[in-house]
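Inputs:
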Amino acid sequence: MNYETYFQNHREQHLEELKELLRIPSISALSEHKSDITQAANWIADKLRQAGMDKVEVHPTTGNPVIYAEHLQAPGCPTVLVYGHYDVQPVDPLHLWETPPFEPTIRDGKLYARGATDDKGQLFLHIKAVEAILKEEQKLPVNIKFCIEGEEEISSPSLPAFLESHAEMLAADAILISDTSLLEPGKPAICTGLRGLCELEISVHTANTDLHSGTFGGGVPNALHALVSLLTSLHDEQGRVAVEGFYEGVHDLTPEMREEFAKQKFNEDKLKTSLGLDSLYGEEGFSFVERTGARPTLELNGVYGGFQGEGSKTVIPKEAHAKITCRLVGQQDPQATLDKVERHLHANIQSGAKITVVKGESARAFTIDPSDPMLQKAADAYERIYGTRALFTQDGGSIPIVETLSRVLSAPAVMMGFGLPDENLHAPNEHFNLENFDKGMLTIVEYLKSL
Amino acid sequence: MNYETYFQNHREQHLEELKELLRIPSISALSEHKSDITQAANWIADKLRQAGMDKVEVHPTTGNPVIYAEHLQAPGCPTVLVYGHYDVQPVDPLHLWETPPFEPTIRDGKLYARGATDDKGQLFLHIKAVEAILKEEQKLPVNIKFCIEGEEEISSPSLPAFLESHAEMLAADAILISDTSLLEPGKPAICTGLRGLCELEISVHTANTDLHSGTFGGGVPNALHALVSLLTSLHDEQGRVAVEGFYEGVHDLTPEMREEFAKQKFNEDKLKTSLGLDSLYGEEGFSFVERTGARPTLELNGVYGGFQGEGSKTVIPKEAHAKITCRLVGQQDPQATLDKVERHLHANIQSGAKITVVKGESARAFTIDPSDPMLQKAADAYERIYGTRALFTQDGGSIPIVETLSRVLSAPAVMMGFGLPDENLHAPNEHFNLENFDKGMLTIVEYLKSL
């Protein structure tokens, strides 16, 4: 059984199948894509059946459907639950895509499409790894379950209730997730920490109508002035979040933790060059990996108000808007953080302006001890395929459901990522390096056989 | 010759004609409306011919056409040049219009449509006033010329060259313009001052791609953070513009000037109520009429960057944009002001971010001495129709071409406005009060006959 040969022989077919999935614009944030969500869910279910899973079910939820599949013919062996998501991020600004987001294209050994790496491409590796073992050996070395959701990019609102009500069905000894990244090409990493998340939207209102900036300019509040000065007040000059109590629950970095971060030998100059930046920016006194791995952040994801068209329009806008997300670490409480930010906004709004705040989804930060045997075996599998042992890292991103999965199912979450940090997740020209497509399937086979 | 009866008898017909003009979406700022611009110009030319003007010409320019018309059969009498514009402002946000902007509708004695008051409705009064006198008396009491442009809302880029090259054709003893407002219903005003204008667009760029706010958040510059803090730096806590040298050329308010402003008995509480504001906002130490009439301002007309769609998107945007206009007074130099703002922006941009500045159109402030006989006669005409003498006011708005017209043609500019300050110029639900539609035509007839 040479899986390298098997995957080489099936490479074209696998890529064509993955492209089929990537052509489905299953954007969970936009309600007009509801039918694409259904199509993507059914596609995944079909592929799981074709792979040879014994039972495959598409479960409706109050939101998007969850796909469950199982193959439980290895009595006495551990049970692995594979988690992934078939929904994707929105695609704007569309004009910055070199090829359309839902027309998958291979260039220079990379597969370009929305969802290529996050998470359709990575999820697909597990389906094909299981299929390969069943085709080559007619049985699996472990019991396997799949739980694939369609709301990860909108913070998984329906899955927690589904997990609670199906805890027995989903019970497992480890939760296997590929939705993170290698450190850099050829340097695998197993994520042992994820930041939490909380989100809010702000609207600032001034007069009951847009006003002429000549007749009224200088004499009335301008919703954009009020908004930008309010948003500016959220940070201090040192790049710290200036919201009272924001850092409560954030653990100070110990010398040991700083040493662990330093092991990554992260090259900040290389990052600057690849992003075309003169300098990085962030909270003073921390390195890039510390800032993103162990420090919280408050980011403006969108700001808009007034005239955006061609030319100029001499208007004083009556309203202006901002979308904000915070990434959380340690014991920061997402709801309490939202409350603190909201208090800050109300306390700092300019006179003559009113503010409304809508709080969105939230999730706590997650960590796991790297000495867990399920993680050590994952590091072994990487070593055999990549020739180098995986580092245990802390990721700046959030997969809000990981903390819930691990808690509800009382099982360690094994985050074996096969993406790369510069693959434009959530941005134009998202892509997946095919080297990791190939090695990913081999690593998963190795891991399952080692358990 | 009872013009009140004449206009009453023709009222329905006049309103139907004006609605025809208001249905043409002649937005000069948006290039896709080029053919609407042509249609509006031809419509005006046709109406001037029907009114009985001897010669009517549509002059092409490097931009939108200028309509010239003349009726010069009053030898020894003064010549009046009527200036107006047939282009209109953009209409967004469209969803805030109670009836569509280009489907004119009369409600509660007000005609609603984009351009109803600025300036199609006011310009139309002059055409119909001239037509009325010619129909009733077969001759005009003065020589009349019309010069109607289609680029006022984009700061009249082509007209100055047209004026220079046609100065003899356009020569006049007074320039008559209706593109301003009464003080309030029943209280006419003649504008003796207009603020100047200069405009610029800013783009802030950070990384060469949008980035995931999890993976990168807190460790890289965010174009929106850089933009909002830059925009905030343009004002101080007292509402003053914080750009070095911005106030050079601004005259201090003398006690006499403050007394003249006080004569308007402007009711700030009433303004607050009508705009739904808890408080007004502006430079400390000045009243609303002083702030808008005699003080400069820097206003954000549009700000945008990042995700604006439904839901949330955890992105760090690579770029963010702002549209800014300044209103100028006294001897402030528009070009020098743009240079100062640009210097401020470059000096205050956050590290890791780059800025590009594109300067737009500009115009100097304009003033005229209220004792000019052409203005005094205009005040007389208002008094006979409205029963109250017009006040001489300073308007916060800019009609950039007024200063140029007056200078190139060496003639006083008589700004007889018939709009009202709350008619939503440049905003959704622009309208024109029909009381001033009726009285406006009568006032113009009175004025022309008095010269």
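The mean pLDDT of chain B is 95. Flag for discussion at group meeting.
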